Amino acid sequence: MSGLLTQEFTVNMGPHHPSTHGVCRLILTMDGEKVVKIEPVIGYLHRSMEKICENRTYAQCVPLMDRFEYVTAMSAEYVFVNAVEKLAEIEVPERAEYLRVIMLELNRIASHLIFYGATAMDIGALTPFIYGLRERELIIDLFEMTCGQRLTYNYMKIGGVSHDIPKEFIPKCREAVKIIGEKMSDYEGLLNENPIWLARTKNVGVLPTDLAKAYGVSGPVLRASGVKYDIRKNDPYSIYDRFDFNIPCRHNGDSYDRYLLRLDEIRESLKIIIQALDGLPEGDTLKKVNPFNFKPPAGEMYSRIENSRGEMGVYIISDGTTKPLRVKMRGSSYNHVQVLPKVATGVLIADLVATFATLDVIMPEVDR
Amino acid sequence: MILATAELIGIFQWLHGFLVDLGLKEPWLSIVVYCLLSVTVFGVLCLIALFLVWWERKIAGHIQQRFGPMRNGWHGWYQTVMDALKLLQKEDIRVDTRDKAVFFWAPVICFVAAFMAYIVIPFGKGLIVADLNIGILYIIAITTFTVISLLMAGWGSHNKYALLGGMRSAAQVVSYEVPMVASILTVIIFSGSLSMVDISNSQQGNLIFNWFIFRPPFGIIAFITYIIAATAEANRTPFDIPEAEQELVAGFNIEYSGMKFAMFFLAEFVNMFTVSAIATTLFLGGWNGPLLPSWLWFLIKTLLVVLLLMVFRWTFPRLRVDQLMEFAWKFLVPVTFANLILAGWMKYAGWYW
Amino acid sequence: MKSVFNGLKNLIKGMAITSKHLGRHAVTVQYPEQRDNIPERSRGIVVLLSDKETGELNCTSCMLCMRACPTAAIRIEAPRGEDKKRHLQSFVVNHTICCFCGLCEQACNFTAIKMATMYEFSSLDKSVLVWDMNKLQEMGRDVPYEPKKKPAAKPRPKVEEKEKAADDKEEKPDTTETKPDEKTDPKNENQTPDQPDEEDKKGEA
Amino acid sequence: MTGDELKEYIVGHLEGKLKPLESGKHDPLFEVQESDLLTVAQVLRDDENLKFDFLSCISGVDTGERFEIVYSLASLANNLRIDLKVVLSREKPEVESVQEIWPAANWYEREIWELYGFDIKNHGNLTRFLLADDWDQGYPMRKDWDAPDFVRFPELER
Q1: Which of A151, A169, B74, B278 has the fewest CB atoms within 10 Å of its CB?
Q2: Is D57 within 8 Å of A48 when comparing Cβ atoms?
């Protein structure tokens, strides 16, 4: 084929391409089907959240955090609230901590279910998407029952959680956990051993350990590359040190490993939820903080948690007034988009889509 | 050429007599009769295509534990009719930089080619427009026209996604033509004829065990390879890379809208019905079956094959383009040719028949 | 050869899973005719609640909700009258910029504002979604609620008020709203909350 | 290593190059001179007992009086965390790029260049990506940034 004269051409993939998960735009230079160069263009969802935070009181920032990462809004709220609580040294009631863990883990499962569906959809299987959303709906119903909203919860408050759970929450939650546990065999049966799925994901988009570390890749993507690092275990926040769960870890760093790892994480999260439900104490759920006059002492800190995509952090500087001086949000997708050109250059366009899907990027986290 | 039909013979005789009474003479008589037949087949096929669109949506809905269309009529039975009407009213958006003639003719060719195959497909005992003695060859030739139209659509749209889709479809259809023909040839070895009617007739009797699919092992292997190749031929998942909506957005038909899009869309479903009808005729005994009228048997069998293709689509992920080609050339072609040669040798040696 | 059969087996396994669902009942509902149950706490549109007996608004124009709102969707005008009390003149909720966070409901001490479970208020005209006081009151007429604390119809000693509030809270542990430092009871007009900061909302965009 | 040990170790190891700040609440926070940044970063990454090979985040800060840039670092191998702060002059804020040490810095530095206007030396790819391509309204994250009319909503200013 060396004698064949070919010409590279540019394809604009996005910002409203079906498989760029929101409004990411990739400028691809292609040689036929082969991607020669990838240039991610972000910023289509830029809402200058960090600037808005500087003009809001701490309590008013929390609903904004929902918009930072709307697939796992609980964790986005939690990371901010957690940082403020650490700054102001507020003791959170025990029950509230348990509720937070339950909500965070439920939300992690919901996010992984979306990942499962969306990835399958990007690789061409349409049905898993609906199956994933079907079980996610159970979780979303639990959230709505508790805090009244399905997507942007505003559940975490500085000093606790906004609502105690209703009576029927615990039986419904146990039922949802059971159903999801049962449906896992369906999910795995559909894709895990499917030869087409294996062909499409095995050894596709391999992210070596060194590259992953260097580019600040975190969460399931990092663990699939062989680094057993989970902030829930390594730097425990909230009450995660009380629960017994494993950190799944895989070593190939390809799309298939990233996919399997997330299914494993669903199982671990189910374990945590059951333990948290068993140990749920009675008591208050909110330590009273005046939202209008809440002034954490001056200071600064970087607080990080492990959300479903990786390390989510917030660098917060308080100058002792009612409004934060600086809120810097760190979303793991930012690094995942950044590493995409390193992983996916030189592959076919279909592999690019598979890689992008298993990196599990969500754009509001990137653009903020 | 057979005009007389088992069930509908009365109507045709009446029609024939009516036209003769009008004073029509050959060749005009034949022309008018064939025109009427074609229009009938066309109408029936349009209905079938509309039905298939609805059915696919229902199957998809039920597989995914949804309802699917429910609004228009009982379980939305005329939903697709309304969709077609809607598409008719839509603005026909044309890209300024398109290649005008190519852009216009692509959907037309696609549509026509999809329907032309039905000239030789026997819907029932004697229910055939024209029983060509090279029937199956004619079908293979005519269905390949589709690829030209897809390539034209890809080129004429002046869109890189569309072009990629068109190129993919050309590569795919041409590659899968080879194993498809090889598995069809296995059947021709069994039957000894290219005529669709002869093939159907040779599967008559003995309940269902005369069907070519039950001639182990060659029949079943040929059937499986044919179904795989046919799925690719009809551009359906897991071989739907020409329109791969997650990669190429919609592939070749990305720039088409309104009725032109509808023509591609209907042609796709007609193609699906075509490959299923061929599978029925070649492997599943055609119209043969006990008790029920022949056309009903044919329809039931064909729809079952269509159902299989639909379950494929709603279960499997999509193959990558290079894997698709590798699968065709490195796996399907050797298997089908080995199957063909062995079957021919067996027949020559007279071990079976 | 083995891998071919294994692959085929797994393909069929996948198809068995999807076919299994073919006969099952749908989990979705046909939306306009059938509806899912909306939980009590669901946060829909913002309404103003009225006293069940008198039909008067519960609002005491303390402006807490207006201060709590992160998007400035609530606009209250309540100038002081001759009796030095605030008189509610207009209460406008702009639902086009409301982010349904529920902070106003949590800030209110008199169960005057609530996010009702109603939804479906889309319209072609944005101005339809800016609701004034009458509309808000009308929408909130039939919304069931449990009063946190009775609006002080007539001045009472301060201690009593606080005890009452404490009692109410014990009865209903759900109400986890915060008690602001500012004395917002109407009888303490002299210590009404500060006007919201006239902050330059530069980062609004 | 606990926080205090870590603080002692780093201060002892990088004598005079960094000084711990009290304002850091949860994890150790150090102030580094801009000129020392690269050496300090190199040591932090390569020292066997530290191995800060994971750059979590780079935050630009405008306190109103001065500009700062904060590097949040984590060590995956030794499970440690620190923050590094560099104070920049308000007149001519510029800082060396740390891309050589942590490639992840690329986009974070681009973002800071775009939103704060700090000059990142030796970055190589300082192009707009968060703001509009034709943005010419200054650096929006600075405290003294005056919002242009088109981003103001008078009805929101109560």
Answers
A1: B74
A2: no
Task: Report cis status (omega within 30 of 0) of the bond before B27.
Answer: yes
Chains B and C touch (3+ CB pairs under 8 A): yes
- For chain C, domains (ranges, CATH) are 46-192 (3.30.70)
- Which among C11, C70, C179 has the least Cβ separation from residue A64? C70
List subunits contacting chain B, requiring 3 or more Cβ pairs under 8 Å: A, C
Give the pLDDT mean for D23-41. Answer: 82
Task: Work out the widest C-alpha separation in chain D, in whole angstroms.
Answer: 57
Report yes or no on chains D and B touching (3+ CB pairs under 8 A): no
SS (H, E, C) A256-297: HHHHHHHHHHHHHHHHHHHHHHHHCCCCCCECCCCCCCCCCC
A241-263 confidence digits (pLDDT tens): 888 888 888 888 888 988 989 88
Name every chain C residue with its beta carbon within 8 A of the beta carbon of A165.
Answer: none
- Report pLDDT digits (tens) over C114-136: 888 888 888 888 888 888 888 88
| Distance (Å, whole) CA A367 – CA C12 | 43
- CA separation for the pair B57, C171 (Å, rounded): 53
In this predicted complex, what is the ipTM? 0.80
Whether the full predicted model's pTM is greater than 0.90, yes or no, is: no
**Is the bond leading into B238 cis (omega within 30 degrees of zero)?**
yes
Q: What is the DSSP letter of A298?
A: S
Q: In chain A, what residues touch B164 (CB-CB under 8 Å)? A: 33, 349
Strands D80-88 and D67-75: antiparallel
User: In chain A, what are the domains?
Assistant: 46-331 (1.10.645.10)
B259–chain A Cβ distance below 8 A for any pair: no
Q: What are the structural domains, with CATH classification, of chain D?
A: 3-141 (3.30.460.80)
